[in-house]
Amino acid sequence: MSIKEISNNPTLAGQVRLIEDIVYSAADGEAQKMSILAPWTQRYKDLPQAKRPLLVFVQGSSWTTPTLGEKIPQLVQFVHAGYIVATVQHRSALDGHAFPAFLQDVKTAIRYLRAHAAEYQIDPDRVGIWGTSSGANAALLTALTPNDPRYETADYADQSDAVDAVISCFAPTDVADTFDFSKNVPGSDAMQFCLFGTDPTKWPAIKREMSPLYQVKDNQQYPPFLLMHGDADKTVPYHEMEDMYHELEKHHVAVEAYRVRGAVHERDFWSQQIYDIAREFLDRNVK
Hints:
The mean pLDDT is 96. This protein is an alpha/beta fold. The chain is 31% helix and 20% strand. The protein has nine helices and eight strands. GO terms for molecular function: hydrolase activity.
């Protein structure tokens, strides 16, 4: 049997590099990390490098520490589509980090990536954010509060945390409503003390501040929004997406929304069609 021959791949086309355990902040003395998916060409400085738009992904975690690797296998396709992808952690409410710690961290991660744009061949002027569940709550709040001093930290203060597009999958948009909907879920009460503090009389105001539904303001420049939610969700009620959609429309914000028929929270929500919709939205608004 003769030896077969194939051509080499001098441009490393289609090859993706995973860069793990990048510490972007040490708020409260705790290292916060991210993982970056980038073209493999970045390993070799003698190869041509082209700047790419950035997609920041925040995995849902019930406001605990997100699992960085949860969606990496699916996010690889966005590198093939021309993006740099960063999936980021944030501080956990269960470890004593009440709101707005998680939001501060996500914004700090965006500023870190802009500060290190040259290192990772990121175009800092083209940034999208995508979140799921509690991560989508963070993504929506990030988009609605660009460079808001309430949520800024001293890290990379010369950089912006504004984004150019936002994707939200099954987000809590009305936090009070979400906790009321899941009040019989074990641990729900404990999580409220962790997120909102030990004085329940202060909770309504904090829940409202943490609810994207109530952060849409008149005469503001917001990025375009893509909202997706399963109508059989037993964790975050589907109507919260509809409410958010109508609120954004009322303020003349560009928004698209998809009802995923029969889908629960996470699980059967996901399909290649979801990723295709997300990529097409990003291509129109970020790329």
